[in-house]
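check this:
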Amino acid sequence: MKKKKIRSGKWEPFSSDASIMGRNYADVLPDECWRLIFSRLDHHQQLETLSTVCKRFLSISNQLRYSFKVLSDPAPYALSQIFKRFPCLNKIDASELNRGLDALIQQISQSGLNIESLNLSNQVKVPVFSVSKLLSLKTLICSRIGLLNDEDLIVIAGSLPWLEELDISYPEGIDSHHQLYFLGGLSKDLTSFSYSSTAVTDAGVEALSSKLKNLLKINLSGNHFISDRSLTALSSNCFLLREIMVRSCSFITQFGISYMIQHSHNLTSLSVDTIELCNSSLPSSFDFQRSSLCAIEFFYMGIPDDLFHSIVEAGIQLKKLTLSYCEKFTFSGIKVLLSTSGQSLEYIDLEGSKILTDESMKELSQLLSNVTTIKIRGCSSLTTSTFFMLAKNCPLLQELDMSSTNLGKEENFHAGDVGMNSTRIHSLKMSRNNFVNDDTLKRIGLVCRKLQLVEMSCCNGVTSRGIREFLNRFPRMRHFEVNQCGEIENVFDATKGEVVGLNLEVLRAKRSHINDEALSRIGKRCTRLVNLDLEGCMKVTTKGVKEVVVNCRELREMNLRGCSNVNIVDIYDWMVLSNRSFSLRKLVPPHCFLPKEYDKNKEPVPWNLQSLSIGSCHKIV
């Protein structure tokens, strides 16, 4: 007899034409519905699991992969297969590529992919003529390039005039001592000095700005041979510019920043550091009346209260405010600013502020009702009282960084006073707090019930039992750091009445006392682990590493740097010769390791090799 279904409150038989008995339920929904379902997953590695279910899921998941990170030195045929498998790739990160950059870009240009974002950071030089062939490119990241000069900028701007985002920060072509020697003898306007062949100068930025009319975001940080001329050129030529970062630029002054604020009417985000502000000319030079700024980042600067008053008078509603290790401003000054922008503010960073106390934070927290991220790292006068006060008065707070404070030091405030307002907090960083102990963790657990990321490195007051009970309170915890926490080898013991499995995806336990027994328990309880960092764990051996690799079937990255009792050659041979299929993709060995393939192919020895990139079928690529 056929199964029945309920219709109008009665049981009725299925009609034969509507029956789906014996069919694959995956075939019932169209591809569009499955795409919507799969797109809700928050990491592409979850798509990899779905891709093994059936060919249809494989095809759908392949179309939802938009970014790809190239590790080590991939073979050309491997890249070709990857680009064919993922036809919707639009973002490629080659920042960890050791060699073969020209070949990679050639493969990209021939693949037919519409690559919109390309990260070439940490390379010796940018192959600008190869990059110029990527006609769909909108974002180019070239941070920490060995040699970057004006000529490179001219070629990039001339061949890719439609670029919207450019990062040329912190070039490494000049030795720091050599650089300081030249900087010490230069005049402030740089007119008598030419360094355009080995560094980025004002001339290069001026040429760049004249071509990139669609530029929205640029990072010039760490370029020591640019001055206010560059900011003037960007303001005059790039009318759509919305974000600029000029940190560690020795010749940028407050007058260049002021010119940009007044003339870049679309500028919404500004990030600068170590600029000396002159009080006498501050009110006249910083005119925010026509400014669209909503995000300001100042680092290591003296910020007088007059600057805050100028922002308030202009009626600017800030969404992001960073005053990291800034001085001169007073509590009354910051209070006036937050009284105006507090309702719009979503992110505030007061790292290293010396004026903050528990009492002052009590007042400020009442002005931060819409803030989702608070960073007060390094504010040594703040205690547990501030933590609970923020949890109580900031109902939208999601991320809190109280590292290097006095969190754990008891004041007259109790967890019961908070109530349930703080349930939104999912990220808590509290490393380097000597007063944090098991009782602190217990009280935090009573307030923050949805924690997913916790960093508590160098908290020597906690015990294995305290950490274990803390972890078992949060079955949704995904990221956990306990670097240099000493005796934590029993953290992952599972005793009667405790949660058997943990959903951790990232576990960092550098320089801890984790041993093979602890790794065995990690493998059994943290089967969803993706990234495991065991740097400097001297009690870990080859046996423990093998066990965790076998049990954690989703493990992608493992750091074994400094694990002197691990034989990486044995692990490498075991993975190659084993009939098992491993998920591991990146393995950082205890010390420099040379795979056998380099000898066979008589290729140059990569002495700077820091990691092995392990692809499918255990092949080094």
Q: What stands out?
A: Residues 1-22, 175-193, 596-610, 613-621 have pLDDT under 50 and may be disordered. The chain has 22 helices and 23 strands.
